[in-house]
Amino acid sequence: MEQPHKRKKYKTILWIAGVLLLMLMAAAFYAYRLIYAPLSPAGTVYIYIDEERNYEEVIRQLERKAALPSEKIFRLLADRMNYPERVKSGRYAISHGMTMPDVIRLLRAGNQSPVNITFNNIRTREDLAGRLAGQLMADSIALLEALRDPSLAEKQGFSSETIVAMFIPNTYEVYWNTDVESLMQRMKTEYDRFWNDTRRKKAEEKGLTPVEISTLASIVEEEATYADEYPVVAGLYLNRIKRGMRLEADPTVKFAVGDFTLRRILYKHLEVESPYNTYRREGLPPGPIRIPSIAAIDATLSPRQHNYLFMCAKDDLSGRHNFAVTHAEHARNAARYQRALNARGIY
Hints:
The longest helix has 34 residues, at 2-35. This protein has 15 helices and six strands. It has three domains: 28-109, no CATH class; 115-194, no CATH class; 201-306, no CATH class. Mean pLDDT is 91; it is low at 18-30. Helices cover 51% and strands 7% of the residues. By secondary structure, the chain is mostly helical.
């Protein structure tokens, strides 16, 4: 009787062992499927890791944006792959089909996805710092401090007045966590690339440096509402420079006063003492009054050939200008414009 009992007990043990093995296999298969389950975000999503490199924030972003199959399994894998101690800042692309090990390897290696930064229509340093900060990890205060730092400007071959000329409006591919100094160096590289031999030769033919061309182009762009007037306005100012005349450019007065919204330049504005007031100072101001566009720079390098010396906004307030060769003709244009302002109550 003892032998059948032993056999029965042995069968029970085998059965239990078999069930446990099946359960373990099922659990292992389930874990395997979770580990290598493809993520299913809605298209490519981006994880942003700032200078704090907060591991918990990384997981929160992955859960919210990338639909992690299992946070618990991700944490186990991340610990096993030594990721929590190796979090790197940056912008990372997570695409459909990646697995959790793929994501961890990507983040751990710091394989960032670059961003395209764009800036145009920029007047002030504050505007530039704000525009860049909206596209990069660096904050606007750090960027603004760099733009105001004379030593950083000098390092790139500029002054605190001319540093904005180094920023050529365009689209550039950089890493999101690019630090401020590296960004400055990159912009200097792009500046040197922009100012090729052809452009430098054109500037030299006019007796101006690239920075002086940018300074004049900034005035041209502020003066002309429409790009098709850029070459005409540039030619006019170059004519005045050749004759030794003051530029007498209204935009420089607005810059000196600190108010670009002025609709009407009054005598009190013309009397403002500033190196940027071209009604009182001869030659070009110390630096650009805005960041000129490529179109304005090229128009200044290739101006329209004419004899105009004066310009005045048209009395239809369209933003276009009447150009004149003589002061008498200019005075008539100016009188019509003043009457138009008076009629509309613009003082």
